[in-house]
Amino acid sequence: MDLEVLLARAAVPNEEDVVIALHPPRWDFTLNRGTKSIFEKPNTSVSRLAISPLDEILACFKRTIQGGNVDLKGYGTIKVEKIKAIGAAATNPIDFEVTIDPVKPSTEDPIGNPAHAELIPFSSGRKEIKARVSDGVCKSLATALDVTQL
Amino acid sequence: MTTAYYTPGCPAAYSTTYCLEAFLAWVKQRMDSFFAKNTADHRVSHYSRQDSLYVTSFKRSEPEFWSASVTFNPAVTSEEVDAVVSQAYTSLFALCLNEHSASRVAMLLQCKEGWDGYDAKPLDHSSLQAATFFLLENGGLAEKAVGVFMNSDGELILNWPINANDIVELTFSAREVSIYVDGMDDRVVYAADDPNFTAEIRKYI
């Protein structure tokens, strides 16, 4: 990921809610829990409820994840300001930004996802992107999700 | 208790050039060892390769009747090898945990590159093997509601509740295992054969 490209992206406003897909192998609705690693990557994908209605976002998840064969049994929502607060409160603080990154229609997905955004974990001062989000912060983010089972 | 995750008898990670017979023999040996430690009422058949090839089958009457077997024709294709490997690992997870966990492993093995819709990697067989070894060497997890997951690097993850609020989560890679317990800032990473890991994880089993 190019730091300059990410810094140039517009940011999702703090008051917005974003949606993340919950599906195997990162989630198990039989046990009603997942792995905190859903937030571990330095560019976790989310979708903005302010741009697309929930049913369109869920349709996009079903269309694009696991080649359209995803067993999508739920989703989680979280407010951007909550994400930032969790990062700031960590022992080793993370400067989270939810960056706007719409996905254009393509041959793989003729519809695209105009609501797509990426959760980027910057170091303090935004000199670099953290390679991974610490487990403690991942756990706090996962716990803060408002989970809905479909 | 053996703490090493990699022993001379344990085949290297599975690949298309993988020695299937060595793998199957390893599965049988691990099942034999598991039953020798955990139950007296069992029968493990011998591994053989003649007209048909089978890994093992076993039966027990306590606490409930259970059996499993892995079979396939020796005219092997890569798909058949994958199927045998999948059956072997799912049998081991069923043995150590339960049928739900076994179904999760079968699901993980079917996840292709990009399973998250982006760039997630398929399951790393070294990670799966390390997790399997962990389960075989650490009894007492069958009643812990162990969850089986995978991260975007293809690493297998096991987690389970340790009380009403907290969970312990292990992430397995080829030579390391990391442990995270709710309340910690971040994971602690151990070499796979580090006896300190064995001592630490026993606190949560």
Please describe the structure with a list of short key phrases separated by commas or semicolons.
heterodimer; A: six-stranded antiparallel beta sheet; 4 helices; 8 strands; B: 205 residues; alpha+beta; five-stranded antiparallel beta sheet; 9 strands; disordered N terminus
Averaged pLDDT of chain B, please?
Answer: 74
Shape of chain B: globular
Oligomer: heterodimer
Which protein chains are joined by the largest interface, and how many residues does each one contribute? A-B, 29 and 30 residues
SS summary, helix count of chain A: 4
Q: Give the tally of structural domains of chain A.
A: 1
Total beta strand runs of chain A: 8
Q: Tell me the radius of gyration of chain B.
A: 17 Å
So what's the overall shape of chain A? globular
What's the rounded overall pLDDT mean of chain A? 94
- Please indicate the count of domains of chain B: 1
User: Order of strands side by side in the largest beta sheet of chain B?
Assistant: 5-6-7-8-9
The biggest beta sheet of chain A reads: 6 strands, antiparallel
Helix amount of chain B: 25-40%
Tell how many strands the DSSP assignment of chain B holds. 9
Please explain how this structure is put together.
The complex is a heterodimer of chains A (150) and B (205). Chain A is α+β, with helices and mostly antiparallel strands. Chain A has one domain. Chain A is 25% helix and 25% strand. Chain A is built from 4 helices and 8 strands. Chain A has helices spanning 3-8, 54-64, 80-89, 135-144, and strands at residues 17-22, 27-28, 33-34, 44-48, 74-79, 95-100, 116-122, 146-149. In chain A, strand 2 and strand 3 (33-34) form a beta hairpin. The radius of gyration of chain A is 15 Å and the shape is globular. The model of chain A has no long low-confidence stretch (mean pLDDT 94). Chain B has 205 residues and is of the alpha+beta class. Chain B has one domain. In chain B, the strands form 2 sheets. Chain B has a 5-stranded antiparallel β-sheet. In chain B, strands 1, 2, 3 and 4 form a 4-stranded antiparallel β-sheet that branches. In chain B, helix 2 runs parallel beside helix 4. Chain B is globular, with a radius of gyration of 17 Å. The two termini of chain B are 15 Å apart. At the A-B interface, strand 2, strand 3 and helix 4 of A face helix 3, strand 5 and strand 7 of B.
